[in-house]
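$ run holo --ligand "magnesium ion" --emit tokens
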Amino acid sequence: MSSEESLLEVRDLRVVFTRGGRRINAVNGLSYRLRAGEMLAIIGESGSGKTVGARTLMGLLPPSAEVSGSARFDGTELLGLSERDIRRWRGSEIAMVFQDPARSLNPTMRIGVQITEALREHSDLDRKAARARAVELLRLVHLPAPERRFHEYPHQLSGGMRQRVVIAIALAGDPRLLVADEATTALDVTTQAQIMELLVELQERLGMAIILISHDLGLAASYAQRVVVMYAGRAVEYAPADRLFAGVRMPYTRALLGAIPLLDRPPHGRLPVISGQPPDPAALPDGCPFRPRCDLATDECGEAPPLLEHEPEHWWACWHDAAVPAVPDVASAVNGEEGVRR
Ligand SMILES: Nc1ncnc2c1ncn2[C@@H]1O[C@H](COP(=O)(O)OP(=O)(O)OP(=O)(O)O)[C@@H](O)[C@H]1O
Ligand code: SF4
Ligand SMILES: [Mg+2]
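-- output --
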């Protein structure tokens, strides 16, 4: 992948944990690239390595994790940074928002204090200036009555409001990349859409890039400019969202999008269940990791296919792409009549 214009370039990232004598290949040769100001969705089944891959960028893995490969952010190799540099980096270049806002906030501290502390960690603002900036951030994330809410505790806010506060805290360091790991999954559908609208607004207003980690194909199709589909710790298809949803090429992606009748789809575009199990990351099969579940597999698939740019900007990892017909109109199928919103 050329590094031209990219803010983040992840290449052949591998993360191995050792637990009970077993080596767990959580991330297994992940490559993708993110442009400044772009929203990239990372989609995949549970256990495919989405969170571990993102936590690696933040230096948030247990020390026992073995990490190799490369993750360059605006020219700086993240994987080589010292603990001290990573701490300074975290929040000021890349910030992360997790699924459960309740766990990201301290229940015993007023929200204003929590944002003010985050601001003071990333800047030399005095207490008064930090407080004013905190209220400004609460306004930026559209928390109603920010001056009053400033003095409230997390339990006094709804789940959606708490997630807005978590996002405000993530913005305290003025990051260039926000990683939202299932940040809307715990919310009801209406609140989820409101938080997604907020992320898009922040992306546009602040010129901030966003990595949206999700099980939800509808979210990827509706909001992201580019999509990475992960399977068994690696990227198996990677393309601009409109191109991907107009014609998926890798059998796993196709299974996600087109293998089951639309009426049987789970609500809100969550990933359908594909027959068979994803491979155990402690015992990956030889060759293509999707082989045990793939009805197009041949002897050739005993060797793992590389992720290649088969068409301009459209990458996939499969020996038999030509055999996979495009799935027509997936975006409108996932999103209803309006199709892709971008
Ligand atoms: N600290 C750890 N020690 C050992 N194994 C781990 C650790 N963290 C994650 N794993 C394993 O790594 C693999 C990838 O996990 P990860 O959390 O990245 O998946 P995910 O794609 O984010 O899944 P989900 O959609 O459920 O959040 C899983 O098999 C998981 O059990
Ligand atoms: S390489 Fe073979 S097993 Fe893997 S997805 Fe393609 S056809 Fe299926
Ligand atoms: Mg996860």
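-- notes --
Confidence is low (pLDDT under 50) at residues 259-267, 335-342.
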